[in-house]
Q: What sequence folds into this?
């Protein structure tokens, strides 16, 4: 069942998501054509700042195949200190 509302500029959620996507696009392409190469960590910061990536602190892997599990592996000391796990916001993953 699709619980997402139909996109409409009169829909508050859609307007918020649209603003986040525009903020991301402007941060990435605002200096076009002088954008150069974008490092993955910078892309992560831009996406988090725009609300497209959600950071959650984890003390154990989220699950098999999660990016935090892949990045940290089985390093118990790192897990004990807390690991930042970044996941796409639900609206980014939703089918258009
Ligand atoms: Zn994770």
A:
């Amino acid at each position: 069942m699709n619980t997402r509302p139909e996109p409409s500029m009169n829909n508050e959620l859609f307007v918020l998501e649209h603003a986040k996507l525009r903020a991301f696009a402007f941060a990435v392409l605002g200096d076009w054509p002088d954008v150069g190469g974008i490092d993955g960590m910078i892309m992560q910061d831009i996406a988090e700042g725009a609300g497209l990536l959600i950071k959650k602190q984890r003390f154990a892997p989220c699950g098999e195949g999660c990016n935090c599990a892949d990045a940290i592996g089985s390093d118990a000391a790192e897990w004990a200190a807390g690991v930042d796990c970044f996941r796409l916001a639900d609206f980014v993953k939703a089918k258009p």
Summary: The mean pLDDT is 88. The pocket of zinc ion is lined by residues 58, 62, 66-68, 85 (CB under 6 Å). The chain has five helices and two strands.
